Each structure stands twice: as structure tokens, then as C-alpha cells.
Amino acid sequence: MEKAGLNHKDGLGYKFLPEMIELINRMRVKLTFPGSAGKKPGDHDYYPETVYEAKVWQTAIQNGMIQFRPFYPADTGPLPPVGPLKDEGFSLYTPDNIDTLKTIKAEFYLAEDKKAEEIPATEPVPENPMPYIPPLGVKRK
User: Fold this and answer.
1) Which of 29, 37, 52, 134 has a CA between 20 and 30 Å from the CA of residue 76?
2) Facing residues of 30 across strands?
3) Residues 62, 125 contacting (CB under 8 angstroms)
4) Would you say residue 90 lies in a domain?
């Protein structure tokens, strides 16, 4: 992103240019997972088309990156924060089958433009946003 002029080296990491923050805060991704073709409600292997959205994760923005998370159902909007991490949704895991992955549609768009004073440049980052979870077989210190 530095080559494109979107962020710059700042000490040990990267930071977005101030003029980019408002635009990045408006970015969204919408993922559409297809339903079961040829099936109907009541069939044991029926599932409907589902659509999820995500905003750019504020912690990533502060580190000069763009990551979309957490995801939430597109028809409900962000979910109420629950638990210690206060996420407004959940992580999505995709299958490793390439043919199945090809059926997932992604759409990037910009949310409604808001007045600059309504969009915070960054949200406060919790002191420990992600608790350390050691790999299996490794004891905690």
C-alpha cells in the first residue's frame, strides 16, 4: 500500500495518511454465499443464500492495514457487542474446496458519506485486544 501512496512508514510500523482515514472508515465488504441449488425449504440438505458484511477493523487501520472484521448478517447490521472483546459480529471461515470458493461473491463498496465530525479517525484500542492463546502442546508462562 505504501507504493500506492495509501500509507507511509512511521517509526516501527505503517500509518495511513490522514486524508485516507475517512475514506477507509467508509469501506465495506459484502460476501454472498449461495444457497443450495435445486433444494427447497424442508429438504434435509437445504440452506438459503446468506449475505454477510464487515467494516474495516479499527485496530488494523491504526497499524496501516486494511482488514475486514467482524462479519455480521447484512440484513441486521452490526450485532450488539457481547463478551470481553466487544466484537460486533463473528469470524467467517471458508471451505478449502476451490470449486465451493468460486461460488462465493465478494463486493466492496463505500458506505454513506457522513460529515467528517461524525466519523472518528480511530476508535480507542483496548489494552489487550486479542488475548494470547498458545498453540496446542505449549504451556502458558
Assistant:
1) 37
2) 53, 107
3) yes
4) yes
DSSP3 helix / strand / coil % (the chain, rounded to 5): 15, 25, 60
- The count of other CB atoms within 10 Å of the CB of residue 65 is 15
Question: Alpha-carbon distance 20 to 65, whole Å?
Answer: 12
Q: Is the pTM of this model over 0.85?
A: no
- The amino acid present at 6, given as its one-letter code, is L
On whether residue 127 sits in a domain, the answer given is: no
Residue 125 lies in a domain: no
pLDDT: is 122 or 16 the higher one?
16
- Mean residue pLDDT across the chain: 77
Count how many Cα atoms sit within 13 Å of the Cα of residue 130 in the half-sphere of its side chain. Answer: 6
Q: Are 71 and 54 in contact (CB under 8 A)?
A: yes
55 burial level (CB within 10 Å; 0-12, 13-18, 19+): buried
Per-residue pLDDT tens digits for 88-102: 778 888 888 898 889
Domain count, the chain: 1
- The reply to whether 123 falls in a domain is no
